[in-house]
Amino acid sequence: MLTPAIKNYIWGGRKLRDDYNKNIEIYPLAETWECSTHVDGQSMTEDMSLSEILRANPDWLGSHPLQVMSGKPELPILIKLIDAKEDLSVQVHPDDEYARVHENGSLGKVEMWYVLSAKKDAEIVYGFRQNMTKEIVRKAIESDKIGQYLNHVHVEKDDVFFVDAGTVHAIGAGCLIAEIQESSNITYRLYDYNRKDRNGYMRPLNIKKALEVANLNSKTVPRQPIRVLKYRNGFANEVLCRCRYFHVERMILNTEIQRNLVEYRTESNSFHTLLCIDGCGCISTDGFLLNFFKGDCIFVPADSEVLKLHGRAQILDVSC
């Protein structure tokens, strides 16, 4: 079981504490980094950080090509819960090549959002409505009219969005989101509603770098992908996203009325992370039992022994 790193950005709220059992006395609570070895926020166990555990047990990461190429006992991905009480900035992330050259060897940032809840009129920003130029974008930012050039997409609970590097985007107010991304903390802000930080200063923008990496072509409004729910004895699952960086499935666990528990085991190529997004249950092996609840995150090493799952819960199962 992992304890997350926490972020109290000014746009956060209370939902992670109230709805996802985060016993954290901080307001606003914007993000919890549930599974992370990133230097800017590391997940912990009772005794040590996940980074320390993986340095001692590098084989737990598996033989996934991304992991082998990195040559480091670190997670290539980062998993967050995000509570957007207010709008996030309009922003963009670089790809791996740009970040490697301009951000001291960092990874870029490709990400996926799974909408846990959304208020009735919640939206996200996803790319431009028309082809743009750098000069048009600059003038639109200066005149506070950038919003009229952006795709504003209505969101609902259970929606999935894939956000490639270079896509200008923003999470809107009223969205509670699980984000799976590359292990990177590089964000270039294009626009932030002339918002001030806690000290009364305008939050900095990164317009030059943002325009160097942003896709300025028009972007089709994303449609929800076709998802196939496969039913098995005691659970059902569906693929939410598959890309070169991560694989995400939603598991619906329900073993309350059966004796046989769901058996679960990872392959040798990748670790798995189980993020409980609803309900509760337990995970066990011979002589070991771990209860989990909504909001809990469990790291499962690659090539694990057979585990048994029991309960009534929804789980995001993330691997590489």
What structural category characterises the helix and strand content? mainly beta
CATH class of the largest domain: Mainly Beta
The outline comes out as globular
Q: Output the helix-strand order.
A: EHEEEHHEEHEEHEEEEEHEEEEEEEE
Number of strands: 21
Number of helices: 6
**Subunit organisation of the chains:** single chain
Mean pLDDT: 94
Look at the structure and name the CATH superfamily of the largest domain: Jelly Rolls
Terminal Cα span: 19 Å
Helix content: 10-25%
In terms of DSSP E residues, the strand content is 35-45%
Largest sheet: 8 strands, antiparallel
CATH topology of the largest domain: Jelly Rolls
CATH architecture of the largest domain: Sandwich
Which stretches of 5+ consecutive residues score pLDDT under 50? none
Rounded to an integer in angstroms, the radius of gyration calculated over CA atoms is 20 Å
Number of domains: 2
